Sequence to fold (491 residues):
Amino acid sequence: MEKVALVMRELPFILGGVGTTVQLAVIALAMGFVIGLPLALMEVYGSRGVRWVVSTYGTLFRSVPLLVLIFIFYFIVAKVAELSNFSAAALAMGLRSAAYQSEIFRGAIQSVGTGQMTAARSLGMTRFQAIRHVVLPQALRLAIPGWGNEAAVVLKDTSFAYAIGVAELMRRAEYASARTYEPFAIFTGCAAVYFLMTFGLTRLLTRVESAYRVRT
Amino acid sequence: MSTLSPEPVKPLLDGSLKNENEKKREIVRVSGLKKSFGSLEVLKGIDLSVREGEVVVIVGPSGTGKSTLLRCINLLTEPDAGHVWVDGAEITARGADVNKIRAKTGMVFQEFNLFNHLTALNNVAIGLKVVKKIPEEEARRRAMEELERVGLSSKASSYPAELSGGQKQRVAIARALAMDPRVMLFDEPTSALDPELIGEVLEVMKKLASEGMTMLVVSHEMGFAKEVADRIVFMEGGLIVEEGPPDVMFSAPKKARTKEFLGKIGAIHGGTVVA
Ligand SMILES: Nc1ncnc2c1ncn2[C@@H]1O[C@H](COP(=O)(O)OP(=O)(O)OP(=O)(O)O)[C@@H](O)[C@H]1O
Ligand SMILES: [Mg+2]
Fold:
């Protein structure tokens, strides 16, 4: 009972990190989307050379552990470009999410089927118009489940930013734990907060998905 | 800019006109068309001419290049050699505005290929909006007219998944018609349909033909061919073996192979009666 009281006492301090955690996740996901979607289009519709560049990018960013990426961006890129530790983490996570999101969108675009493109072109649409009005509206809907999964992963992976001192949820929990000598209680509380955020996000995306489902 | 052919219509040898049709303008002209996929030569030099209002039915064994021929006409497939003119404009010319010329052809596919995320109405309207830049209201009004033309205005707000195969194909026809094509290309429009749904699609096609639409149809529906076609083209091995009016092709073809093939598919596909 007194453990609960302790967690309740520390909770406002820990929750103070939620804003940073959410910001980091939103920036990383947005960056991943803005870069990942064009990468996917390039991988599906691009020339051989373009496809090679894209798939190499994907392979690189998917093969390096996130913590290593964050350190590379913090100790090398951020030092050279004079970025804050938050920016270094956001950049590392965004570029990595772009690699994963491009895979999600590539799969979704490919599962739309060539007949849709052919039919659009037969009406006189340019390739760009066909992608914009026929392929993407379907592909984006198909991508929602996979994207939701990626969003949940990114949200939880923001905790890695604690390693370079970004004051997000995990970092604050760490402080609280050091201060109270109650790691079990504090991290259980911390886990509950991550759980609630992830659960809420997943529920939201499930709703979005069913609202926009395309039956075939 | 020089997509207009100097004179796509072949001058007749003796200067006299054999029948009314030949006075008409040439809508599609294919000359010396060749296409290979890798080492497989699919089209080995096709010459074909379709005049305004003509209904030409193409038949031939599977893998003979019928679909490839249709797809070369609107350049969905790029030919290796030869020329194609649509309504006087050469789509195979260097620098031709392919999208613009392609919009003069309407295409109907075996697998319908309706846009799954759009209602029937929007399937028909999207080409008008995106390609012809017609404003929303006007596009929807015209799309509705096209749906009426194929008897499906009541299904305007249904999604493709909610339609039967026959209804899907009729929406696909309306979608192509909305672009005001000079010629309609049909690639086995009824072969993916359950037998009881074939009739409604053939019915729409017959109506189109009677309205004077120029049509190039790959189909093995021999009942339809006998009734509606002005000409039957028999293709085999990437070449046109023989062509002629249905009565001649069915009763007195010049080539033994034509007789054999038409006899065979007549026995299988001749039975679909269009009410
Ligand atoms: N994009 C392609 N790449 C490689 N080969 C192809 C391609 N399209 C068609 N072919 C091949 O070309 C040949 C002719 O195909 P096509 O679809 O034109 O024949 P078809 O006469 O329409 O036959 P069917 O009656 O079966 O529809 C076939 O052997 C086919 O496998
Ligand atoms: Mg075919």
Remarks:
- Confidence is low (pLDDT under 50) at residues 1-17 of chain B.
- Residues B 66-67, 187-188 surround magnesium ion (ligand 2) (CB under 6 Å).
